[in-house]
Amino acid sequence: MIFSFKQLLILVFVFSTTTLGASLPPTGKWSYGRFSPSSFWGTDGSYKGAANEQAMALHLQANGTFEMYVLNSATYYNCSTSSYTYWKGKMQLGDQTFTLTPQQGTYRGEYSCYAGKNFKRPANATEIAAARKQYRYVWEKDLEGRTALRIFFGLEDHRGVVFTQANW
User: What superkingdom heads the lineage (predicted)?
Assistant: First the structure.
């Protein structure tokens, strides 16, 4: 049997996405994180932190609920600023998409040089409504050959971020 190039590409695509679980919903615990290779040190030699860090953890459950944890942190010389966001709510699955609709959330901010400005507060109704988002996803393998979930954060996002399975 002779295949055309187009048929061969379709066959390869179907085989690779099927073996990576394309038909499975993206349930489970997933995480993504990165940090800056540069760091800041105090004049006394103490470590002050990476220039920046970013992390996200998702717990997508088969019962249609989710939890999301987001961390963003930046250090500049002796001062660090960190923001933490937590969302909990409902998840609706679509065709290679999922929509997260928060029902509650928390914001927290920490400032090492201005500790009096630190805060932790619940998200208000307007913030909760604005946090509803639809994400696209594809299954793939990470650099170590493990099943990974590439999540795209909007229609214009063509790179996405690779989430790996987590155990937390």
Answer: Bacteria
